[in-house]
Amino acid sequence: MTILNAFWVGGLVCLIAQLLISKTKLTPARILVGMVMLGVFLSGVGVFQPLKKFAGSGVTVPLLGFGDLMAQGVKEAIEKDGALGILTGGLTAGSAGIAFVIVLGVIGALLCRPKEK
Fold first, then answer.
1. Distance (Å, rounded) from C-alpha 81 to C-alpha 88?
2. How confident is the model at residue 23 (pLDDT cuts 50, 70, 90)?
3. Could you say which DSSP state residue 116 is in?
4. Residue 117: pLDDT band by 50, 70, 90 thresholds?
5. Confidence (pLDDT) at 57
6. Are the CB atoms for 85 and 53 separated by under 8 Å?
7. How confident is the prediction for the chain on average, in pLDDT?
8. How far apart are CA 116 and CA 21, in angstroms?
9. Dihedral over alpha carbons 74, 76, 80, 86 (to 10 degrees)
10. What mean pLDDT is predicted for residues 33-53?
11. Nearest to 12 by CA among 54, 46, 41, 44
12. 82: DSSP letter
């Protein structure tokens, strides 16, 4: 049942993003940022954790999960470092994933040769 819930909730998240792309004049970059902000908001109001228990990777893999990760990092850093945690918490929590993506981007750039049109 967990797999089914992850599938339909993740699909619903993707459907919402696709509808925003198709029916509005929002750019994909703005929609991506909006999804991260929605994850932060849902985490802040306490809805994300029950949703994560229900849908598992259906909500943690899309950008909502990154927003939750950032929000949880800020929350922990504020408890530990005070107001400075507002600036450092999100980056500290997401640093491993961000670094991994940068390394993969560099490897991809080295392995692939762009072709002129």
1. 9
2. very high
3. -
4. low
5. 85
6. no
7. 89
8. 29
9. 10
10. 92
11. 54
12. G
Residues in the chain, total: 117
Burial-class residue 67 by CB neighbours within 10 Å (0-12, 13-18, 19+): buried
Asked whether the beta carbons of 36 and 66 are under 8 A apart, the reply is yes
**Spatial distance between the Cα atoms of 64 and 88, rounded to a whole number of angstroms:** 20
What pTM, to 2 d.p., does this model score? 0.76
Residue 38, CA atoms < 13 Å, CB-side half-sphere: 14
pLDDT in tens, 81-97: 899 888 889 888 889 88
Provide the token pair at 11: 């699909």
Listed range (9-23, 51-65, 72-86, 98-112) with the worst mean pLDDT: 51-65
> Could you give the CA distance from residue 58 to residue 26 in angstroms, rounded to a whole number?
24
List Cα–Cα distances, 83 to 10, 11, 51, in angstroms. Answer: 34, 37, 28
Closest by CA position to 70, among listed 105, 39, 49, 45: 39
Can you read off the two tokens belonging to residue 74?
């800020």
